[in-house]
Design goal:
The protein is an alpha/beta fold. The chain is globular, with a radius of gyration of 20 Å. It is built from 14 helices and eight strands. It has an eight-stranded parallel barrel with strand order 1-2-3-4-5-6-7-8, surrounded by four helices. Bound molecules: phosphoenolpyruvate and magnesium ion. The site of magnesium ion has 4 residues, from α9. Belongs to the PEP-utilizing enzyme family. This is phosphoenolpyruvate--protein phosphotransferase. It comes from Vreelandella azerica.
Length: 324
């Protein structure tokens, strides 16, 4: 089956009724299969900048970061690369910047850390901007946003970075900026967020954890952690509708996008692109190439009538088997 799927990898990610779904990849360290991947994807939907930071012994300096980011941007150019600012805290600690808290996932995490340490964020933004000189594929994404003021503050720092570089004789363009929708509070602030940013990216891994109040890494409650929970699906339907109404692109970069059934549902909801770990591309592409948009929408309608996660899984399994 893998060989069969592999065979399809150079074919478009398009349904039999002609609906195209851009597939993107999540990256961390530079992928050495870039050349092969590039022809098969629409870009990098999530570059987790904390990953290279995890293997250094201190915060990489501006020069070092500029090199890292340039490498990503150049490797995938002209395709878009969505670079997320540092998302540490929660389960991702840097050895040289330990954070000890009773509830790390509800604590000092992502933007909360970098807004408290603007010097860290400024270096990162300056490096991203410098790296994008002469290219126009940089998109910047802010993680763990809860309040609109956090976006305003991050945008102020972005303006400042652009100004500083200008004063140093380095002219850079303002990149497109987006926020992660991963804290439930943001579901209800889409209008206010849309006034400030260019795009949305749903982090279903964290949105699942926070909406269901289930630690994403705790094996004891792993049975309860389910991105296909009816509550999650309801939120995702609303998010896609809101983004459309607000005329802003919305993508999803959590594990759900890499699950074939999940990808079909997201397509039916109207998500504009799906970003996943590269190994999931073949099966997601295969699912999209086999199921029409009309059928996927029908499936979504059926799924939205169900009451429990178990019913959702049973129904999806039955349909997916029939489509194989
Ligand atoms: C997510 O939360 O879904 C996400 C993509 O980000 P991370 O897994 O890095 O928290
Ligand atoms: Mg997240």
């Amino acid at each position: 089956l893998t060989a069969l799927l592999e065979h399809e990898q150079d074919l478009p990610s398009q349904t039999p009724d002609g609906y195209k779904v851009p597939l993107m990849v999540n990256t961390g360290l530079t992928v050495d299969v870039v050349a092969l991947l590039k022809s098969r994807i629409s870009g990098v939907g999530l570059y987790r900048t904390e990953v290279p930071f995890m293997i250094t012994e201190r915060f990489p300096g501006e020069k070092e970061q500029t090199r890292l980011y340039r490498d990503q941007l150049e490797s995938f150019s002209p395709l878009p690369v969505v670079m997320r600012t540092l998302d540490i805290g929660g389960d991702k600690d840097l050895p040289y910047f330990p954070i000890e808290e009773a509830n790390p996932f509800l604590g000092w995490r992502g933007m909360r850390v970098t807004l408290d340490h603007p010097e860290v964020l400024m270096v990162q933004l300056r490096a991203m901007l410098k790296a994008s000189q002469g290219l126009d594929n940089l998109y910047v994404l802010f993680p763990m946003i809860t309040n609109v003021e956090e976006v305003d503050e991050a945008l102020r720092l972005m303006e400042r970075a652009i100004e500083e570089l200008g004063e140093e004789g380095i002219a850079v363009e303002r990149p497109k900026v987006g926020v992660m929708i991963e804290v439930p509070a943001t579901i209800y602030q889409m209008d206010a967020l849309a006034k400030r940013v260019d795009f949305f990216s749903v982090g279903s891994n964290d949105l699942t954890q926070y909406l269901l109040a289930v630690d994403r890494n705790n094996p004891r409650v792993a049975d309860l952690y389910d991105a296909l929970h009816p509550a999650l699906l309801g939120a995702l339907v609303e998010l896609a509708q809101d983004a459309k109404r607000l005329d802003k692109p919305i993508s999803l970069c959590g594990e759900l996008a890499g699950d074939p059934a999940g990808a079909l549902l997201l397509m039916a909801m109207g998500f504009n692109s799906l970003s996943m770990n590269a190994p999931n591309l073949p099966k997601v592409r295969a699912a999209i190439r086999r199921v029409t948009l009309v059928d996927a929408k029908q499936l979504l309608d059926e799924i939205m009538q169900l009451d429990t996660p178990a019913q959702v899984h049973a129904h999806l399994d039955a349909r997916m088997d029939a489509w194989e």
